[in-house]
Automatic annotation (TrEMBL):
Domain Acyl-CoA dehydrogenase/oxidase C-terminal: 185-301, 551-706
Keywords: FAD, Flavoprotein, Oxidoreductase
Domain Acyl-CoA oxidase/dehydrogenase middle stretches: 447-538
Top-rank taxon: Bacteria
Domain annotation Acyl-CoA dehydrogenase/oxidase N-terminal: ranges: 334-441
Family note: Belongs to the acyl-CoA dehydrogenase family.
Designated name of the protein: Acyl-CoA dehydrogenase family protein
Database matches in PANTHER family: ACYL-COA DEHYDROGENASE, ACYL-COA DEHYDROGENASE FADE29
Transmembrane stretches, start-end: none
Cofactor: FAD
Length: 710
């Protein structure tokens, strides 16, 4: 099924909002309709506008979109129940006609046997029929009586008594019932996310307007980071839900898994984001004059209903362990996927048994082959000797090498430094430097961080003072990975100590380090890598090595950092390999390693897999946004880094809990789970969190993009 176009879906959701604005205008309406009168009127409106006949068109994307909008006003109109019933009863023209015109208003109950009564029924006061879903049977009965059961849900859930007469009964394929349950789960998650997302919006507005201690409260990191976490989780949740819808419409055999991943992540994210938003709103959002309390009820009601609609295949971990597949792919377009096949053929030559990057990473043969194949300079325009690769193709190359634990350091040089030389370098610099980078033999390190300057790069202190055609540099750089083997340094210096703002006084150089006045001191990191302190003592740099304008280095730096952060976000591919390695180990003895379905270890795997898929979908979104706009992705790229970086820490730590002490052993020990990758990445994970701008700084960037005050 093709689904609706983006424009059609936008028009449809606009129409839904228009109807809701008159018939269910705000979340407080949930507490103002105890007898279901307004809900019945809304149901009639849904029939009038064709929402109750969406099953005939297979428009599940419209249903999910509508449920998201319903969640924003805490409305329990059961559109997915209507859609699923219409699909299951398609052969009964009389019933489907009644569903379409609103005279038959069904709600669904998943049961283990035919029963005269059901509990926890949503929207029962407005419904006419209950559809009982058994393992391989569908039964429809009229509602005989409704008893409200007050609690979290508003309008209240109900205990429902059913008439003895059967309106419809039919055997059906168990797969059809499982499909129905999967869609119901996705609909509940979509509605909960809609409600939580709206509360996050309220909290963002409140953080910008509410003043405490003389400042808008959004200026306090405790508030802004909480808001960013909520916005990040909601962005990922919406993307995962859309990915599951797309998989269903495309008829992929992985769509149940896509649904379970979306639900696993989004349900918990909605609950956490709701709590976070309520904390920001504080007393302002605690009283029922505000919509937040009613949205709170909606989120928790929908999340709690999910347990009653479990799939026979189990949770995410159960599906992954019992199959031979990994997480569903996110395709980047036909051209990019064709290139992926090319890259996989290339990496086959260099795959090793090593499971960690420092073992199977860059080697001379790999670097030479990458340069010869044009992969090193693939991002450069053809006019500069590159292949003008699309952003999607660049991401494919990064993903595939990261998955295989291979590193082409010369491509990082080409992407960061070569691109800067192409954009800001002189013709002489381009002629002199670009061929060296393109050769694949360009060992360099980043001269950014300093003892007092990490993520706050604009405050760097290393000075460069002009002396004719040279600059005299004095200062110290820290954490220069690879500086002990580097021939070149990408050096950020301060050339105007009085510049306001400080970043206006920075100048960039790309220069060799084999001259007097340069000294290296090595440090061994927790991961085993060598990073260095480097000292510049009257170190002379030719002006011919200056990249860009004097005091114009900040523009050069930010362009290079943007590329670095996309690379950092791509560590999701590395975690993907870790997950596949973990699953391969678990599949050898599932019961002995992780226990039965529902065990704590399986729940952990489900959560980690869903978080990984959330990071991957944001990476995919950031690539598409960058390709579409030609610039960076303001939100998606840093959001992806936030999720993926923290995930690597949690994943590696969880592997030790799943496999026990054996996972804490290194790659040199025979038969270690993951071949040593788990303990190595546990040690290395800190760098993913703090490197390239710590995730706290990334949260600040997202906060600025969301309009929060500095």
């Amino acid at each position: 099924m093709p689904g609706l176009t983006a424009e059609e879906l936008q028009d449809f959701t606009g129409a839904v909002d228009g109807v809701l604005s008159t018939r269910w205008p705000h979340a407080r309406s949930a507490g103002e309709d105890p007898l279901g009168a307004e809900l019945r009127l809304l149901w009639a409106g849904a029939a009038e506008y064709g929402w109750t006949d969406l099953a005939s068109a297979g428009a599940v994307d419209a249903v999910i979109a509508a449920l998201g909008r319903l969640g924003r006003v805490a409305c329990p109109l059961p559109l997915m129940d209507v859609y699923v019933t219409g699909s299951l009863l398609a052969a009964d023209e009389k019933l489907t006609a009644g569903i379409a015109d609103g005279s038959v208003r069904p709600v669904i109950a998943v049961v283990e046997a035919d029963t005269p009564a059901v509990r926890f029924v949503e929207a029962a006061s407005a419904a006419t029929h209950v559809v009982l879903l058994l393992g391989a049977e569908v039964i429809v009965r009229e509602i005989a009586g409704v008893t409200e059961t007050p609690g979290v849900a508003k309008p209240s859930w109900s205990d429902v008594e059913l008439r003895a007469d059967v309106v419809f009964r039919a055997k059906t394929a168990p797969e059809a019932v499982e499909d129905a349950k999967a869609l119901i789960r996705l609909g509940l998650a979509a509605r909960a996310v809609g409600a939580a997302d709206r509360t996050v919006e309220f909290s963002l507005a409140h953080a910008k307007e509410r003043v405490a201690f003389g400042k808008p409260i959004g200026a306090f990191q405790a508030v802004s980071h909480r808001a960013v976490n909520g916005a990040t989780d909601m962005t990922a949740s919406r993307a995962l839900i859309r990915a599951a819808v797309d998989a269903h419409l495309a008829g992929r055999d992985t769509w149940h898994l896509a649904v379970q991943l979306a639900v696993q992540f989004a349900a918990l994210a909605a609950v956490q984001a709701q709590f976070g938003a309520q904390h920001t709103l504080a007393a302002s959002g605690y009283f029922e004059e505000h919509d937040a309390p009613w949205l709170f009820r909606r989120v928790h009601a929908d999340a709690s209903l999910l347990d009653g609609v479990a799939l026979a295949a189990g949770d995410v971990a159960d599906i992954l362990i019992e199959s031979t597949r990994g997480l569903p792919a996110f395709e980047l377009g036909e051209r990019a996927e064709e290139f992926r096949r090319e890259v996989r053929a290339f990496t086959t030559r260099f795959r090793t048994a090593a499971a960690v990057e420092h073992m199977g990473g860059s080697n001379r043969e790999l670097l030479d082959a990458a340069a010869e194949s044009g992969y090193v300079t693939m991002s450069w325009p053809q006019s500069a000797g590159g292949r003008g690769a699309s952003v999607e193709e660049q991401m494919v190359f990064g993903e595939e090498l990261a998955y295989e634990n291979l590193t082409v350091i010369s491509k990082i040089a080409a992407d960061m430094l070569g691109t800067a030389v192409i954009r800001h370098g002189t013709p002489e610099q381009q002629a002199r430097i670009l061929p060296l980078i393109a050769s694949g033999d360009f060992p360099f390190y980043l001269g950014y961080s300093e003892p007092e300057v990490g993520s706050d790069l604009a405050s760097l202190r290393t000075k460069a003072v002009r002396d004719g055609d040279e600059w005299i540099v004095n200062g110290r750089k820290m954490w220069g990975t690879g500086a002990h083997t580097a021939d070149w340094v990408w050096l950020a210096t301060r050339t105007d100590p009085d510049a306001k703002p400080p970043h206006a006084g920075i100048t960039l150089f790309l220069t060799r380090v084999d001259r007097p006045g340069f000294e290296v001191q090595q440090h061994t990191a927790l991961s085993g890598e060598i990073s260095c302190s480097t000292f510049f003592d009257d170190f002379r740099v030719p002006d011919a090595d200056r990249i860009g304008e004097v005091n114009g280095g900040w523009k050069v730096i930010t362009e290079a950092l943007a590329q670095e952060r996309v690379v950092m976000a791509n560590n999701a591919a590395s975690v993907m390999r870790l997950l596949d390695d973990l699953l391969a180990e678990v599949r050898k003895d599932p019961a002995g390693t992780v226990g039965p379905a529902g065990s704590a270890k399986r729940r952990t795997i489900s959560e980690l897999a869903a978080r990984l898929q959330a990071a991957r979908v944001l990476v995919n979104a950031s690539v598409r946004a960058t390709a579409k706009t030609g610039g960076g992705a303001r939100l998606e790229a840093p959001m992806a880094k936030i999720l993926a970086s923290q995930l690597l820490e949690d994943f590696s730590e969880a592997a030790l809990r799943i496999f026990g002490p054996a996972a804490a052993l290194g790659e040199g020990v025979p038969d270690v789970p993951g071949r040593g990758a788990f303990e190595y990445n546990l040690r290395y994970s800190i760098m993913h969190v703090v490197g390239g701008g710590s995730i706290d700084i990334q949260r600040n960037l997202v906060g600025r993009a969301l309009g929060l005050p500095r």
